[in-house]
């Protein structure tokens, strides 16, 4: 089958960051404001994620709307996993961040040992695709825990969190352009987009008394979802016009 992962372009990073923001604000809205609770929200989103992943796995090539639907749902589920551990079971963010980091390292180790590559440009078999989505889900859970650890437990706050994680992503990209390993720098940046998106979501949605800008979960989620849909539609339209099935040059193109 053809590669099942999108081109790594500016649109890719924008959609990815906005997806993580929607995961943060959307999960909070459903669990708290709608009153579904963490367990019910997790069950609903988990079911929708399974359905979306089935569609993704059944496809023989990259289909933008299916892929990004999976990413948005993975973002919500990843947030729910971390929140359930922290709020429901009282597990320390230090512990959950460490556990998720070890789990991700294990996935990468098994993936590389099995396939001899972690490149996202070679997701052309079912096994590689399963490794890929396992890694993606873990990066979201890890990013949520690490973001909460930095902004809440360590007291950095939402504004500093956005600046700090944004700066770390910029460093990863600069390292790539200076000759660092493309696969390593891509995954480092990919992991960091989760805490960046979470910090951005909290900054926009939380009340001013909590250090946010007070736009609320609904407004933030709806605006970002509209932008995501617009960008995915543009990507799909461009793909239909050009008939591209292979990645073009872009940030981390060799990843």
TrEMBL record:
Keyword field contains Membrane: yes
Keyword S-adenosyl-L-methionine set for record: no
Stored Pfam families: DUF347
Coiled-coil intervals, chain numbering: none
Name this polypeptide is given: Membrane protein
InterPro entries: DUF347
TM spans (from-to): 30-55, 62-82, 88-110, 130-150, 162-192, 213-235
Keywords, in A-Z order: Membrane, Transmembrane, Transmembrane helix
């Amino acid at each position: 089958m053809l590669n099942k992962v999108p081109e790594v372009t500016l649109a890719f990073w924008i959609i990815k960051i906005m997806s993580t923001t929607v995961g943060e604000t959307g999960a909070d809205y459903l669990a708290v404001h709608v009153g579904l609770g963490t367990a019910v929200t997790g069950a609903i989103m988990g079911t929708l994620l399974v359905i979306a992943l089935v569609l993704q796995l059944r496809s023989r090539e990259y289909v933008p709307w299916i892929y990004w639907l999976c990413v948005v749902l993975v973002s919500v589920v990843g947030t729910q996993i971390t929140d359930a551990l922290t709020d429901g079971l009282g597990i320390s963010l230090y512990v959950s961040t460490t556990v998720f980091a070890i789990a991700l390292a294990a996935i990468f180790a098994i993936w590389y040992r099995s396939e001899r590559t972690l490149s996202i440009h070679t997701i052309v078999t079912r096994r590689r695709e399963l490794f890929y989505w396992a890694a993606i889900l873990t990066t979201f859970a890890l990013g949520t825990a690490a973001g909460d650890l930095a902004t809440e437990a360590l007291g950095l706050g939402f504004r500093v969190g956005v600046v700090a994680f944004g700066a770390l992503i910029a460093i990863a990209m600069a390292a790539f352009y200076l000759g660092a390993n493309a696969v390593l720098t891509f995954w480092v940046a990919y992991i960091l987009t989760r805490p960046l998106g979470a910090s951005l979501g909290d900054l926009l949605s939380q009340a001013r008394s909590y250090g946010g800008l007070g736009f609320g979960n609904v407004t933030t989620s709806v605006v970002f979802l509209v932008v995501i849909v617009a960008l995915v539609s543009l990507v799909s339209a461009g793909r239909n016009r050009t008939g591209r099935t292979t990645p073009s040059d872009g940030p981390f193109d060799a990843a």
